[in-house]
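Lab notebook page, bench 4
Experiment: in silico fold of construct C2
Operator: M.H.
Input chain length: 255 residues
Purpose: comparison with the prior construct
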Amino acid sequence: MTATSEDTAGPYAQFILFGDSITQMSNNQDIGFGFHPALQEAYSRKLDIINRGFSGYTTAHAIQVFPRFFPSPEVASVRLMTVFFGANDAAVPGHPQHVPLEQYKENLKKIIQHPATRAQGPRILIITPPPVNEYQLEFFDKSKDIPHPSRTAAITKTYAQAAKEVAAALNVPVVDIWSALMGSTGWQEGQPLPGSRDLPNDEKLSSLFLDGLHLTPAGYRIVYDQIIQKIADTWPDQHPDQLRFVFPSWVDAPK
């Protein structure tokens, strides 16, 4: 068995996960299930899953660091990439991580339209920021010694919507994690937002978060399932079940 035609820059093409701490922590063994190791298992011997998650980063940080790590076609072939920012950008105005909504949208566009991205032409998935739980965030904010609330359910919703708008404008598939996590609580559009102080604390939503911002294994499971489903729907030939091993199984390997 030979490598696929897309593996021209080396034995394994790359699937880069670009994001903030939610991406970085998805590889934390202390948490348990994360979407990075789950993707590694799914694409084992087919693609290299590269975690480029940066704790605390906003899209303003992202556009600065992106060209410094993203490989040229001469170095590696990037076949797939997730862009998963907004959880920090959506911090309340006045917070040091806050990025204004329109600037957030422009920054996402800059990443996707960057010359380095165009040189590779990867299949890109924009992932919306997840919702937040203001009740749990109170303890997170105190641990960071920052004013509470650092984020609100309502503001975060607008950033999730903005990510979807950018995806639609650029004709890039979107993984709507915000809606998937909120939908798991039974929430429907027009209802008060679980996670906000307008409602009592929602136990189902709380089960998806470690601290109101970062995800539990149950939350990461939803992220993974949504990514895999979007790949299946958009690029079925790139679903892990449809890709061959880069190197043959031991039965077929030369002896």
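Observations: The domain at 13-131+150-191+214-242 is CATH 3.40.50.1110 (Rossmann fold). The two ends are 13 Å apart (CA to CA).
Next step: discuss at group meeting.
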